[in-house]
Amino acid sequence: MSGDGTASGPFLQPVEFMKMRAQRLRWPQNPPDGGTVAESTTTAVLPPHGKFDPFPLAAGLRLRDVVHAIQRHDDGARTLWLYSLTTPAWSATTFRDGEDEHQVRQYGGRRLWPDFERTLAWWHEAGEPGIERLGLTVTPDGWQAWLDDPAQLI
After folding, report:
1. Label partner for 97 (CA 20 to 30 A): which of 42, 48, 61, 80?
2. Which helix (H) or strand (E) holds 10?
3. Segment (H or E) for 61
């Protein structure tokens, strides 16, 4: 920490904290009447999404104001839910083992799936960085995530 209230450093190890009630997420509701759900497909491969895997942290740092969660189905399928914390928008992509194309459904003013695909491409191009290559700088005015060096913003 510096005298101007700035702190910066790498993430050292994965940790988890219990959330306060005010931090708990509210899941998106069905689209309001008149809303349109856009449907498409993707060939993206979902990286491991366990709570201590590096991709969910990297995606969370890069996709500002977007929550992502995995819903596991009884048949082995997994749905990746993305939803915006700032505008009514969500995306649900269902991945099934052995299939090359996966169904994408989106709703709202922000198309979250293309944002996610850009984040996935960035992660691959950066060499699939682990937690130890990611860092955070916090100032009185906000925060910035970085890769390898505070000058290399995510």
Report:
1. 61
2. strand 7-10
3. helix 54-62
Could you give the C-alpha distances from 108 to 23, 26, 82, 104, 111, in angstroms and in order?
23, 16, 12, 14, 7
pTM comes to: 0.83
140 Ramachandran zone, left/alpha/beta (phi>0; psi -120 to 50): alpha
Q: Are 60 and 80 in contact (CB under 8 A)?
A: no
Residue with token string 């937690």: 131
Q: What letter represents residue 133's amino acid? A: R
| Cβ 113 vs Cβ 102: under 8 Å | no
- The token duo for 88 is 């009514």
Q: What is the rounded distance in angstroms from the CA atom of residue 71 to the CA atom of residue 46?
A: 13
Per the listing, tokens 């916090």 go with: 138
Pairing between strand 89-95 and 102-108? antiparallel
- What's the pLDDT tens digit per position in 54-78? 999 999 999 988 988 899 999 999 9
What are the contacts of 96-105 at 24+ separation with CB within 8 A? 100/43, 101/41, 101/42, 101/43, 102/41, 102/42, 102/43, 102/44, 103/39, 103/41, 104/39, 104/40, 104/41, 104/42, 105/37, 105/38, 105/39
